[in-house]
Amino acid sequence: MANKNLRTRQKASFRLALSSRQSKPRNPLAVPARLRAAGPHRKSASGLRQQQRRALKKLLGSDD
């Protein structure tokens, strides 16, 4: 029991020492950037061509 209490007291004093330090100022632009919802990205031109080629082959019923 004595060791458990000693550990608890050490953690509490350690936390007090960290909280008394001066912290860096927060970046005011970081929060709004994280809160913005990122939308889906557009496919590249080559990706669109490949998709159209696959759709055409599917329409024509070609295996190759």
Summary?
The chain is an all-alpha fold. 62% of the residues lie in helices and 0% in strands.
Please state the CA-atom Rg, rounded to the nearest Å.
Answer: 29 Å
Strand percent estimate: under 5%
Tally of extended strands?
0
Span between N and C termini?
75 Å
Q: Please give the largest β-sheet.
A: none
Query: How confident is the prediction overall: mean pLDDT?
Result: 75
Structural class: mainly alpha
The low-confidence runs, each spanning 5 or more residues with pLDDT under 50, are: none
Query: What sort of overall outline do the alpha carbons produce when their principal axes are compared?
Result: elongated
**SS summary, helix count:** 3
Helix content: 55-70%
Q: Give the SSE order as H and E letters.
A: HHH
